[in-house]
Amino acid sequence: PRVVILISGGGSNMTAIADQVSAGMIDAEVAAVICNNPEAAGLQKARDRNIPTDVVDHRQFASREDFDRALMASIDSFEPDLVVLAGFMRILTAEFVNRYEGHMINIHPSLLPKYQGLHTHQRAIDACDTQHGVTVHFVTEVLDDGPNIIQAVVPIFDGDDAATLQKRVQQQEHVIFPIAVKWFVEGRLRMVKNAAELDGNKL
Ligand code: GRF
Fold first, then answer.
1. Centre of ligand 1 from the C-alpha of residue 24, in Å
2. What confidence score (pLDDT) does residue 86 get?
3. 0.90 surpassed by pTM
4. Formyl transferase N-terminal domain spans which residues (predicted)?
5. 36 Cα: distance to centroid of ligand 1 (angstroms)
6. Residue 75 has what pLDDT?
7. Ligand 1: residue whose CA is nearest its atom 3
8. Over residues 3-11, mean pLDDT
9. ipTM
10. pLDDT tens digits, residue range 159-190?
11. Dihedrals φ, ψ of 77, to 5°?
């Protein structure tokens, strides 16, 4: 199976997945890494791994729709079985989501449905939560709201700030995202009527 990974920044989740693929833990090929930011550090990490890259710079497009259409054209040129949003910081149009629904997953740094949107670590600290975490989910039209696939929970300690908490969460991102990719490319994970199923059992 062919996986296309979309990034906007450092690409640490992309490298976690790519390294599991090259270690033979995931029976797939990272067909391409596509980025909306020409300066993103993750592009160099992909090139270091001889993964084809493409930049679709959202600033070059007059509208969100034009950007999404260019992005779809790039994605489709690599013929993916799975599209992975790994720190991809663009809100996608319904046309885009509908095209890949059931074949597109995202990682969000909170225990969804808690803390959709941005600044999730600070919000958890401000709420005096004692636990926080990260969710991999199927992407649907509602932002940060598709069927959950896998979550990891981390403790929040008294001395935490957003940076220390984000670091603890990101360590778990690099564990659960490759697992979700593995399940999907092995045909064990699928999205059925807006629910995630693993081995035929609803998650
Ligand atoms: C991740 O920490 C994830 O929680 C959020 O954006 C970040 C991307 O990091 N979606 P990276 O680009 O994968 O290093």
1. 23
2. 98
3. yes
4. 2-180
5. 14
6. 98
7. 87
8. 98
9. 0.95
10. 999 999 999 999 999 999 999 999 999 999 99
11. -65, -20
The number of C-alpha atoms within 13 Å of 109 and in the hemisphere containing its C-beta is: 24
Q: Is 92 annotated as a binding residue?
A: yes
Side chain identity, residue 19: D
The response to whether 104 counts as a known ligand-binding position is no
Find, among 84, 83, 93, 92, the residue nearest to 14 by Cα. 84
| 148-187 b/e (C-beta count within 10 Å ≥ 16 → b) | bbbbbebebeeebeeeebbebbbebbbebbbbbbbbbbee
Q: Does residue 22 have a known ligand-binding role?
A: no
Q: What is the CA(76)–ligand 1 centre distance, in A?
A: 23
Nearest CA to ligand 1 atom 7: 87
- Asked if residue 42 has its Cβ within 6 Å of ligand 1, the reply is yes
Which residues are annotated as catalytic? 108
